[in-house]
Structure formats: structure tokens, C-alpha cells
Amino acid sequence: MVTDSHQRASLRWFPRLNRHIMQEPDTGVRYTRAPLGTALVTLLFDRERHLDLAVSHGMAINLEAKDLAEKFRAGTFPQPGWEEAARQSALEGRRDLLRALRHSLFWLAGITALALTVLWGAGNLSPDLPIAWHKVLGGTGVPDRVVGTL
To answer: Which site among 20, 44, 102, 131 is 20 to 30 Å from 92 CA-CA?
Structure first.
């Protein structure tokens, strides 16, 4: 289910994506695509809201097909109990995505630790060595005229 504030923000920032907004005649529930930023924040911090957004987003995508939109208007789509199945599917997808993000974070930390260990073993990294900020900034893409002033 989508709140009115989410509906207004979604229409303002994503008008092209939400041109097929449908509303259930009996309950008044609206289905819209979820903005990426909102989906990411709710994925990490608010499980229930993320599931609500995922269900609404999935139905909005389904209703973009003309045949399903016609069935929706006629009242033959979706089947009874679809929302619980959609929530369960979204929950499984959320678990898989969080597991993949966790594994990526562990791999990143492991590779960074390995690289720092190799640099320390080779003598290129030591608390005694000064940090050459012009080299650090030059490696990040800061223009040479800025790096030259350090």
C-alpha cells in the first residue's frame, strides 16, 4: 500500500515511470513504481515498508501490460491471495539481496586487508612513513593544479 506522500513524491520525481498508476476501486489502494533511493533505504532499515513498496512496485509493473490492465479494470486480475504470495516473494528477494551485499562487504574487507598486509610486508606501508598527500590526491583524480599546491 502506498501513502499519499509517497504518491506525490513519486509523481513529482518519476512522472514517466508512474504514468500507469492504477487504483483498486473497492479499497482505493494505489500501485506505483518505487523510487530507487527509497527502496534502498527501506531495504537496509525498514523491512515492512520495503515489503509494501516491493508489492506495490511489482503490481505497478504488471499493470503496465495492456492485457493485465484491462483484466484489472474488469476485476479478474489479480487472483485472490496474490498479495501474500507477492510479500513472500519480496521477502525472499530481500533476504537474497542482503546476503549478497553482506558477502560483497566481507570480500571487500578481506581484499583490502590482504592488500594492506602485502604492502606492509614489502615495506611500502609503515606508520613511520609520511603520507604523501599529492600522490593520494593525484590517484583520486584531483586536477594537477590543485595537487601541485600541496
So the answer is: 20
